[in-house]
DNA sequence: GTCTATAATTCGATAGAC
DNA sequence: GTCTATCGAATTATAGAC
């Protein structure tokens, strides 16, 4: 038995504590933002003392970075699932609409991680943002490709720059986490639908 | 001469220092955000020591609140100017387009105050947000009325809720301050135009 | 009005007992 | 692995000289 080999339940126990801390951090970060989220509160939610966090993580920023990274992954997975359900032969117009609905739904329903990522990005230290730059660029590029694909197949207008419009769409979608709450009379599918149809089909009446 | 009556140049001197502090605070707040903006740095930009700020303001939050309030006022004025130039008899569709271009241009060109307001709002203390709630609600309501007006005159579709779309449009426009820089090859009028035509006329090709 | 010096907190991080 | 105790740094805010 090598030194790195541990009993299975011991591995699971350590992993579970780590996950509990990340869950707690995502919760606090999504509600308070980066600066206002204290290790004391994160530890309290995880039912620990603040000092104990350092056995599992090197620093506050290490916790924040991992939370945000998980949030980005969750969002990407949700979009992929929606797109693969729509099918590869759907038009760029339809695929963009599906992606918008999938993403808006994902970031509002049951994911403190994606909300923490959205809320804390600008506020987080430069080092953290640099460490996440590749993942975020990849995320943004996904939207750019989606739009460019629609421009190529003729279902989306090509007199605007996909890079600019992608940023705009991402920001518009992210804004829902700032005001939508589950107890609203308006369900999130309705909101997602309005977002998609407005950004993709426009607000102008075609009557 | 009443006790509150001061020599004109003395009034002006005090006001000028106050303005210099607000200018410095807007600069730092727009670049660093609420938490990372320290009084030491604000004072340095204003060419003072941190302690001296307290002769002019009661607290950091008092400075922040006033900067944000000025930012909101600047934005509102820019939109009003654009709309009055467009004329009262323009369609809701056209007035909304004009307002988008006016606002996007205003928040990127030459106004640390509007950028500070956009960047610091979510991060600022609850008391600050409550104090600005009326002004911000009024700002948002302006966009809602603009959209509803277009829905009434038939130039904008009425199968979406103006309240939801207004929030979405505001967030999309605000996002430009996060990435656009004056030295970009793409001028801000071009960006504003793309934003307006995409959100109002849509991304779908009408060919 | 502005400066220097410092009080008062808060928070991230570390050390050592258990 | 977790706790208690504490260090050290940063920051808002105050006090008093000038």
Word description of this protein:
- 2 copies of one chain form a homodimer.
- With 207 residues, chain A is mainly alpha-helical.
- The first copy, chain A, has one domain: Orthogonal Bundle (Tetracycline Repressor, domain 2), CATH 1.10.357.
- The first copy, chain A, is built from 10 helices and no strands.
- In chain A, helix 1 (8-32) crosses helix 2, helix 1 (8-32) crosses helix 4 (60-86) and helix 8 packs across helix 9.
- The longest helix of chain A has 27 residues, at 60-86.
- Chain A is elongated and about 60 Å long.
- The N and C termini of chain A lie far apart (75 Å).
- At the A-B interface, helix 9 and helix 10 of A face helix 9 and helix 10 of B.
- Chain A binds a DNA duplex (18 and 18 nucleotides) through residues 13-14, 17, 38-40, 48-52, 54-56, 59-60.
């Amino acid at each position: 038995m090598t030194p790195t080999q541990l009993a299975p339940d011991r591995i699971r126990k350590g992993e579970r504590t780590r996950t509990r801390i990340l869950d707690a951090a995502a919760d606090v970060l999504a509600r308070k933002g980066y600066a206002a989220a204290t290790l004391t509160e994160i530890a309290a939610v995880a039912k620990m003392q603040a000092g104990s966090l350092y056995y599992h993580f090197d620093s506050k920023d290490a916790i924040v970075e991992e939370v945000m990274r998980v949030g980005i992954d969750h969002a990407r997975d949700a979009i992929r699932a929606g797109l693969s359900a729509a099918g590869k032969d759907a038009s760029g117009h339809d695929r963009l609409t599906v992606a918008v609905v999938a993403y808006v739904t994902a970031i509002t329903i049951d994911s403190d991680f994606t909300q923490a990522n959205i809320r804390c990005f600008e506020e987080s230290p430069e080092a953290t943002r640099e460490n996440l730059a590749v993942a975020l660029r990849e995320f943004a590029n996904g939207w750019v490709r989606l739009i460019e694909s629609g421009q190529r197949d003729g279902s989306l207008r090509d007199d605007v720059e996909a890079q600019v419009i992608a940023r705009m769409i991402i920001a518009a979608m992210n804004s829902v986490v700032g005001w939508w709450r589950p107890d609203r009379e308006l369900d999130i599918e309705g909101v997602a639908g309005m977002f998609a149809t407005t950004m993709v089909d426009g607000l102008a009446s075609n009557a």
